[in-house]
Each structure stands twice: as C-alpha cells, then as structure tokens.
Amino acid sequence: MPTRDEVLDDIDSYYEAGWKYYEFAKDHIWLAKQKLHVWTDHNVLTELIEGCYDLYISVSNLTTFITPIAGKGKLPYFLRNFTIAEAPDAGITMRMILDEMFTADNEELKEFIGLVDAYRQSLWNKPFDMEFWAATARGFEIWG
User: Fold this and answer.
1) I want to staple 22 with a disulfide (CB 3.0 to 4.6 A). Which of 1, 12, 49, 58 is the partner?
2) What's the CA dihedral at 124, 129, 131, 132 to 10 degrees?
C-alpha cells in the first residue's frame, strides 16, 4: 500500500503530464485554425487529430492513472484513503467544552471572554428579535 506522500507525488506528476498534453493539444488546434486557409485539408485534419489525441492523453493522465485498486484514479483514491479516512471525529460535546473551560489558564479564559464580549457587542446595535429570543429562553425552562 503506498503512503500518503507517494500518492500525492503521483498525483502531482500525472497532473503535470496532463497539463503538458493539454498545452500540446492547444498548440495543435491553434495551428490548425491559423493555417486553415493556407494548408491542405489533410494537414489541417492531421493537426486536429493530433490535438484530439493530446487531449485524450491529458484527460487520461488526470483520470485513469494506475492505483493499487484497479479502476480507481489517484485523486479519488487519495481522497478516500488519506483525507476522509483521517478526518477527526466531530463529536464535540458540551462536557468536553466545559472540561476545557475548567482547566483553562488565565490567558485562555481572557481570550475566550474577550471573544464572547466582542460577539455580544456586535449585536448591541442590531434589531432585536423578541420572538426568537423568547423561544430560545423557553428552551432553557427545563432547568427550572
């Protein structure tokens, strides 16, 4: 099984090759367009065919390069195996937040309170939605 860095290096190299062939295709197609009235139809068609072939190689480099799992492109392989699989669990609970607050040092508490106060101040001159805040307060009635 390749490492994360090996897969990223492969993605980089195949994208580089894909870009190179895209540039080749662009040059062939542009040349065919420029010489349309000067060259024979055969020469123009040859350039267009070369351009199409280069686009085919370019797209192949971006989508079908080999991975340890047959039929999978490197980018989807990387995203499935090295990004999503490593995503941290987002299960943050109120208990976790409170535990952090109880163990925070003075500087962390000042930073937190300063941020909360700044948010509060930003609301002072905004319209007050009495229905929203009444509903919010009713949500806390279970404490009583």
Assistant:
1) 58
2) -70
Its pTM stands at 0.44
Give every CB contact of residue 84 below 8 A, 6+ residues apart in sequence: none
Q: Taking the CA atoms of the chain, what radius of gyration do you get in angstroms? A: 30
Q: What is the pLDDT of residues 96-136, one digit of tens each?
A: 889 999 999 999 999 999 999 998 888 888 888 888 888 88
Q: Please state, in angstroms and rounded to a whole number, the distance separating the CA atoms of residues 24 and 89.
A: 45
Query: What is the DSSP secondary structure assignment for residue 127, as one 8-state letter?
Result: P
Q: Identify whether the C-beta of residue 25 lies closer than 8 Å to the C-beta of residue 61.
A: no
CA 44/CA 58 separation, integer angstroms: 21
Beta carbons within 8 Å of 62's beta carbon, 6+ residues apart: 14, 15, 18, 73, 75
* Structure-block tokens of residue 141: 């009635």
Q: Classify burial at 29, counting beta carbons within 10 Å of its beta carbon; exposed 0-12, middle 13-18, buried 19 or more.
A: middle
